[in-house]
Amino acid sequence: MKNLPMDLLRTFVTIQELGGFTQAGELLGRSQPAISLQIKRLEELVNVPLFNRTSGLRLTEEGQLLYEYARKILELNDTAVSRLVTSTVSGSVRLGIPNDFEVSFLPLTLSRFSHAHPGVTLDVTSELSVNLRRDYRRGEYDLVMSMDENPSSEILAQDAIVEPLVWVSGPGFQLDPQAPVPLVLYPEGCVYRRHITEALNRAGIPWRIMYCTSSLLGIQAAIEAGLGISALASTTVPASLKADRTLQHLPALGEVTIGFNYDSSNLAPASVRLLDYLRSGLHQSQRFG
């Protein structure tokens, strides 16, 4: 029976999650040729091609099957290793997350982290990104996940992903082209709100605010009740709502950057471990959201 080396599986999974050999090399600290050689070795071990390189580096059918197994293998491996070294990882982490990610991939990611590191206490706050970055600079957080127009100097390139914004509406909702667009928005300072209002103003489309709340659940409830529409990053849209890049006569909303703010020179071991989990969860949500 053959054994599949863990480092080859990790490289394979990272390529799929980040969307390329170069990106995986940057994250794993290896050159692109070294990454290619690892995948060649893995393909030789399983005796099947894993990527269809003629169609945008898509997984083959066999590659998709191995990817699902590899993710589970790596998760078990990482959990086992983490549990065996929990005596060296303890303390607390003050984490700030954007409002609309509190019900997407983050609860599952944080649950996995807590099970793997029971000695670490998480102090998690959900807020608008503008407030999270402000309070991070004041020293109120160890680690912040935030949303912005473009990566700031505080966000390393490997920590950021770009997400399209989509219009979000309730089932069966139809806009009245003769009336101002009814909006359900986060408070002032929200990146979504700025994208929405600026896009509508540029297009000369009148709008009015029907409901304003800092809670994603409040946004969701208002949209489901038919009060109006809003916008979210594509991977955070609740299953009960409809997402569209363009909606009837409304314009596209562009993209936002999602990344992490931290001081690598002062990050405690518990925060480093948590950052690894969050990076992985963020990239997986983008690939499969």
What does this structure look like?
The chain is 42% helix and 21% strand. The strands form three sheets. Strands 3, 4, 5, 6, 9, 10 and 11 form a seven-stranded mixed sheet that branches. Strands 1-2 form a two-stranded antiparallel ribbon. It has a two-stranded parallel sheet with strand order 7-8. Helix 1 crosses helix 2 and helix 5 packs antiparallel against helix 9. The longest helix has 24 residues, at 61-84. With 289 residues, the chain is of the alpha/beta class. The relative contact order is 0.14. The chain is globular, with a radius of gyration of 21 Å.
Comma- or semicolon-separated keywords:
289 residues, alpha/beta, Arc Repressor Mutant, subunit A, D-Maltodextrin-Binding Protein, domain 2, seven-stranded mixed beta sheet, 9 helices
Helix and strand arrangement:
Elements: H1 6-18, H2 21-28, H3 32-46, E1 51-52, E2 58-59, H4 61-84, E3 91-98, H5 106-116, E4 120-127, H6 129-137, E5 143-148, E6 161-169, E7 181-185, H7 191-202, E8 207-212, H8 216-224, E9 230-233, E10 242-244, E11 255-261, H9 269-288
Parallel strand pairs: 3-4, 3-5, 7-8
Antiparallel strand pairs: 1-2, 5-11, 6-9, 6-10, 6-11
Number of domains: 3
Q: Beta-strand level of the residues, as a percent range?
A: 15-25%
Relevant CATH superfamily of the largest domain = Periplasmic binding protein-like II
Q: Look at the structure and give the mean pLDDT.
A: 85
Poorly predicted segments: 151-157
Which percent range fits the helix content?
40-55%
Q: What summary fits the major beta sheet?
A: 7 strands, mixed
Report Rg: 21 Å
Work out the helix count: 9
> What structural class do the secondary elements suggest?
alpha/beta
CATH architecture of the largest domain: 3-Layer(aba) Sandwich
N-C termini distance:
35 Å
What is the level 1 CATH name of the largest domain?
Alpha Beta
Global shape: globular
